Known about the structure:
- This protein has 321 residues and is an alpha+beta fold.
- The chain has helices at 3-21, 46-56, 101-119, 198-212, 251-254, 277-291, and strands at residues 23-24, 28-42, 68-75, 86-94, 127-130, 138-141, 155-159, 162-167, 174-177, 179-195, 218-219, 229-230, 241-242, 269-274, 297-301, 312-315.
- It has 2 domains: 21-31 and 186-320, Alpha-Beta Plaits (2-Layer Sandwich), CATH 3.30.70.520; 34-183, 2-Layer Sandwich (Alpha-Beta Plaits), CATH 3.30.70.520.
- The protein contains 6 helices and 16 strands.
- A hairpin with a 2-residue loop joins strand 7 and strand 8 (162-167).
Amino acid sequence: MNSEKKLEEQLSGDWDKMVKKAEIEDTYAEAFDGLYCRVIVTADDEETLKKAAEDATATPSGVIGRLDSGIERWLSERETPDKRKGAILQFWKGLDKRKPLEDLVKRFEKELSYRIRQDILVKPFTAVFDALFVKPEGKIDMMERVGHCGDGFEWEEQLYGRNMIVVPIMVPDFLIERFIGYARGISGGNFWYMCKTKKAVMDAGRKALKAISKIEGIITPFDVCSAGSKTETKFPLIGPTTNHPYCPSLKKKLGKTSKVPENVNYIPEIVINGVSLQAVKEAMKAGIEATLNIDGIVKISAGNYGGKLGDYKIYLRELFS
């Protein structure tokens, strides 16, 4: 037997062991169309950059009509327009077929301006640049809700080959590109990794997030999410509430209506948004693969709404076919 064939059989055997260790359920994730923008944030130092990027993306709130967001990746000085360290951030607004697109874009603009004004502009020596790498469906004029923070003293200037707004502030000065493009992408891709141990929750989560981060155009708004939700609720004022059939602490109380499998004590979720359906599928596959050989992982599943709400069904097993 030649060495190439031996290696092929070894890899095949290793894969069989991983799949046997954690069953991949025959189910699907339900995903949605969404609008997103992709920006680069830069700063003079890593501490300020990290604070600006994390603050601006810290509160995923798409389920309550606001924005989901996340850090796609960190950038070196060679990768940014102003040759400073940076980060690529994504901001997402869900689409609602019952509402005019124009109204959704206006809400998107308003919510995006809050994140930029309150979390980035207020950090010393920061700048924001458009980083959309596909043809934009439209562009948001940042003068209206961000530039005018200069109270009429703001001005435009050609800097770094871009049309920038200079906003005069007490620690001079904040820079933002005049127009930020937005496009359609896929939100809500997800998988659940059902765990026997608390250690597995974090060990598998870290490995999954690291694997997902290598896929271009992807964010995980919640990172490791401990609170998967459902749309049906007794308290509409709150919005989506706990997915009670999958709460391990309710297994005895719910009896036969509990959907928590044997030996499962924790059900974390990783939610994935991406610039394309293919990118989301690649990220889901990478994340799932990273969890399969972790001790304490019992089963891989996904969240869906019975096919009633989402625009796409992403079948888990088909990711590996």
